[in-house]
Amino acid sequence: MGGQFSPKDPMRCPHYARFAAHLERPQFDGIYWTFFFSVIFILFVSSWIYQSTMRYREKPENCEHTFRRKLKISLAWCTALFFLAAILLIFEVFALLALQFCDGEDLMSLYWSTWTMLQLGSEIAILGINLAMWHQLFNVRQPLWALALGTPVLVVAGIGHIIHLALRMFYKKAKKSRRASKDVRGEMTEVSASSSSAPTIKPEREHVDQASTPATGESMCFAIDVGDDERVRQWPSFVRMSDGKAIVRLTAIHA
Questions:
Q1: Which tens digit of pLDDT belongs to each residue from 29-63?
Q2: How do strand 245-251 and strand 219-225 relate by DSSP bridges?
Q3: Does the predicted TM-score (pTM) go above 0.85?
Q4: Angle between helical axes of 25-58 and 64-97 (0-180°, round to 10)
Q5: What is the 8-class DSSP label of residue 255?
């Protein structure tokens, strides 16, 4: 039976109610209340799953591997229940739109407020259960406020907490990769600089007059800049190291 003060709207009825526009009042009334209590029942089941999983961890004989396996199964079930409740909520919305535009219900404000508080609130509470189990599964520190079965505001704050953790993790990984690439570039620069610098030989004649020609058998000493090459110590003419340079003695031989 339609409302006495809210007339039917034949233009908006098929536009908003879609499939429910072709149903009668008892039919979309039954759809709404059946799905209404179904969503409440799904919330109860999700809370039971979460509570049984968390209670296992408090048992003395609990095993971390078994707990994580139970946690994965519970998270999968609660996620499936979350999507099932979302589908039921969509059908409820069409039923409410049919009540409003196709039947002209006078008390639609009570319907919408109840749906928002209990149905949409239950959906958000189930999402909070999933977020709490996700924190447990990945060993992420939970926020200080209640997340599982929390109010919509607390659950939305929990989503913001996850976004904050994800951004901080991304920043740390980017900073670490940038630092690693900088170290690699520095090592490549050092290697190229050391490979491009060839050993230079600076002859330093000791106690010999530069204007005279060395006689046969006369020895001269040279200082050779060999860098970090240790193979110079194996040379037969090697004398010693001085100021980072290798001192070698060469003997003049005239043909």
A1: 888 999 999 998 898 888 888 888 888 878 877 78
A2: antiparallel
A3: no
A4: 160
A5: -
